[in-house]
Design a protein that fits this description.
By secondary structure, the chain is of the alpha/beta class. Helix content is 57%, strand content 8%. It has a four-stranded mixed β-sheet with strand order 1-2-4-3, covered by helices on one side. A hairpin with a 4-residue loop joins strand 3 and strand 4. The longest helix is centred in the middle third of the chain and has 22 residues. Bound molecules: zinc ion.
Length: 203
């Protein structure tokens, strides 16, 4: 029973690409974003994460049927103010979208922290985004509660991974600090949250 329900969320995940928009990107960008989305797709479908989501939905009393589809978008999305978006939830349709970081962001990140950390970061960023958007199905417009709970749940998730705990913890710091610093330190003109250099020592 558990397995069936776990798979039900997993089976609603799709990589979704807007072919019209894709034409505006160079071949390099397209290649990069396709790779990114398939990596995120695999990260989100990992059984240990699916199991965790199942547990979280049950705890929050959110029906798994409330989720109709999870689209892993190939191309990034920016708000009009230039800020990047990690995810969106259409609560009336039960449709969730998860967006990637930009190629530019990833290049800078890779230079600073290395490829492996980038992969861990990208996978966990998508996981946090999915946790966040799933919570919106219940706390529809209560952004404050969703943010606080997403943080708590991701923290629980990282603690459930003994082998990776130290790395996951630094990623936790990275993801949430990057968000906070992006909000506080950077006005609307900036497109990506800054990764503070002090995080280097955690890596
Ligand atoms: Zn939100």
């Amino acid at each position: 029973m558990l397995m069936l329900e776990t798979f039900s969320l997993s089976s609603k995940m799709r990589i979704s690409v807007d072919h019209e928009k894709l034409r505006n990107f160079s071949q390099n960008h397209v290649k990069f974003y396709l790779k990114y989305s398939s990596f995120v797709f695999r990260a989100l479908r990992k059984p240990f994460f699916q199991k965790f989501l199942h547990w979280m939905l049950e705890k929050e009393k959110i029906e798994e049927q409330a989720v109709r589809a999870v689209h892993i978008k190939v191309l990034p999305f920016r708000r009009k103010n230039g800020k990047g978006v990690a995810g969106k939830c259409d609560t009336s349709r039960g449709r969730i979208r998860i967006y990637p970081k930009t190629m530019k962001f990833c290049q800078v990140f890779k230079q600073k922290f290395g490829r492996n950390t980038l992969l861990v970061y990208a996978g966990n960023r998508a996981r946090v985004a999915l946790i966040h958007e799933l919570l919106h199905l219940k706390y529809i417009e209560d952004e404050k509660t969703v943010r606080a709970l997403a943080k708590d749940y991701f923290c629980i998730f990282t603690q459930k991974q003994p082998a990776q705990s130290s790395k996951a913890l630094c990623i936790y710091t990275m993801i949430f600090n990057a968000k906070v610093s992006g909000k506080k330190a950077l006005p609307s003109s900036s497109t990506e949250p800054s990764i503070r250099l002090k995080l280097m020592k955690h890596v």
